[in-house]
Write a structure and sequence with these properties.
By secondary structure, the protein is of the alpha+beta class. Helix content is about 40%, strand content about 20%. It is globular, with a radius of gyration of 21 Å.
């Protein structure tokens, strides 16, 4: 578990092993964030979810320890009009225009500038190429195995899930046969952990496509029932306790969305309460209003 910048490929190359097979792409998002602290050690109340998709931007509010927190605006890397968010004055104006987020600025800034983060990789690393491990005696776990857009906050949970799977694989297969162990862990990861990465990646791709559609003045309507149901579940979560439990279960990497909506009666609730999510008002300026705000008009 050496993180998303794992030197594992270099280590393998140095020992003469075949390279792993990597799927690599820019996640497509840019993050503009600042950190704050409170005098009394309290944290601003969450008036919505910690991650809110608000038209062509997303707001990420993350409590930390010792009375500190961060506020981040997330945009598409293609959105050149919002690159001015690196300016602290423009960034603050944009955050203050969001009624469910603005109060998170009521603290002491820890830094004077906006921290911008881009070029974050979506990367999946496969140490089993052509049905044969590139090396034995080594495994990739967590971000060293696969990493994606951190907005969803799933990285640590997926890493823990895979670490527990590694423990179980060692207990079941042992380490006496390194080749068999490598195969067993690879197949167990494919079955138990890989779907979480693919779900996260699919969500990112949908979100980027949605932003592109909204920037162009259109509406995003993909032919993907799973995405539509996921949006409906998120909308229904604050209207019904069963839907909320299901939504939290997915967010906390406890149950996949398809398993949650398979619970008796839940899908009907999700559709009835959340199916009209496109008609819900967005607590944020329109695209035109946002561009006016950041332009200083």
């Amino acid at each position: 578990m050496t993180g998303r910048r794992s030197p594992l490929p270099r280590w393998l190359a140095a020992m003469g092993a075949r390279p792993p097979r990597d799927e690599l792409d820019d996640s497509g998002f840019v993050y503009y964030g600042r950190h704050f602290r409170s005098v009394g050690g309290d944290i601003p109340p969450a008036l919505g979810s910690l991650v809110m998709h608000l038209g062509t931007i997303s707001a990420l509010t993350l409590p930390a320890d010792n009375g500190t927190w961060s506020v981040t605006l997330v945009t598409s890397a293609k959105d050149k009009a919002l690159r001015v968010l690196h300016d602290p004055v423009v960034w603050e104006k944009a955050v203050r225009s969001l009624p469910l987020v603005a109060h998170w600025l009521d603290g002491q800034p820890i830094d004077d500038r906006v921290m911008a983060m881009a070029g974050i990789e979506d990367r999946h690393r496969n140490l089993m190429v052509g049905g044969v491990p590139v090396a034995t005696g080594v495994v990739a776990v967590g971000d060293a195995w696969a990493c994606s857009n951190p907005t969803a906050g799933r990285g640590a949970s997926i890493g823990m899930l895979q670490a527990a799977l590694l423990r179980d694989t060692i207990a079941a297969a042992g380490l006496d046969d390194p080749w068999q162990f490598a195969r067993s862990f690879h197949h167990a990861t494919d079955e138990m952990v890989e779907p979480w990465y693919r779900d996260t990646l699919a969500g990112d791709r949908h979100r980027l496509a949605e932003i592109d559609a909204l920037i162009g003045g259109g509406e995003y309507r993909p032919r993907d029932p799973a995405w539509e149901i996921g949006q409906a579940l998120a909308n229904a979560a604050f209207k019904d306790p069963d839907c909320l439990r299901g939504f939290v279960s997915v967010a906390m990497v406890l149950s996949r969305s398809a398993d949650v909506t398979a619970r008796p009666g839940l899908l009907d609730k999700v559709i009835a309460l959340g199916g009209g999510w496109r008609d819900e008002p967005i607590p944020a300026p329109s695209r035109a209003e946002l561009l006016s705000i950041v332009a200083g008009s």
